[in-house]
Amino acid sequence: MLYRELPIVKVDGDSFVPSTHPVVEEMPLSVTVNGRHALTAMTSPTMLREFVVGFLYTERIVTGFHEVESIRIEGNTVSVLTKNPLAILTSHKTVLSGCGGSTSFLDAGRLPGIVSDLTLSREVIRAATKETLDSEPHRITGGIHLVGLFDGEGRAIRIAEDIGRHNALDRVVGHGLLEGIDFSRTFAVSSGRISSEMVRKCLLANIPVIVSRGATTTAAVEAAEAGGLTIIGFVRSRKMNIYTGWERVRGASTPPPSG
Questions:
Q1: Pairing state of beta strands 77-82 and 27-33?
Q2: Which of 29, 132, 147, 233 is the most buried (most CB within 10 A)?
């Protein structure tokens, strides 16, 4: 379950009423890779296999699911064996559930560039954003992030929910790896801000477009420009902001020169 009903005291003006309210679940997930502790993540208790596969991929521990020998999940502990027994993070990581995401350091110059000729219509972008945000747990709790992975026609490949948007992105990437999806023909939609960490994960997965109903950051824009990733933010009603890679949005006019 993504949430539990917990007892609360509801305040309305001068009244105090005992009640209950749905609260999102958060659990520590300990991951070992080839016998060594690699990760402790604060995450939602769903799609754990997909999360681990996606995380291993976006952290460059594996280059694909074919390098994973086995994944064993027991409670809040995951044990992974890879075909390369030396594959392991250089240091232990703690991934928190907040907006900080993982502790990875962003070096845009060492990230791969996007290789894709995908273009999207504005209608597909708007519809995918609406579909991603249509989540009952999100409406009920107000405490869950969502990330959707869509094909170029706007068909949902997978929509994942998590207390952290970075974890949700790893989940849809993991699902794509397990299903053999060609990421160059996909785009991602996030319920939250597009950070540099979200950009880093998209560049590593070769997802050419990331979309959000919210904002982005300067570091994310700079990394996206360097890697050829399209960032689209503030997708609301008939409006959207294209920050980078405008040529992937059909009908977009050439932006004026900066500065």
A1: parallel
A2: 147
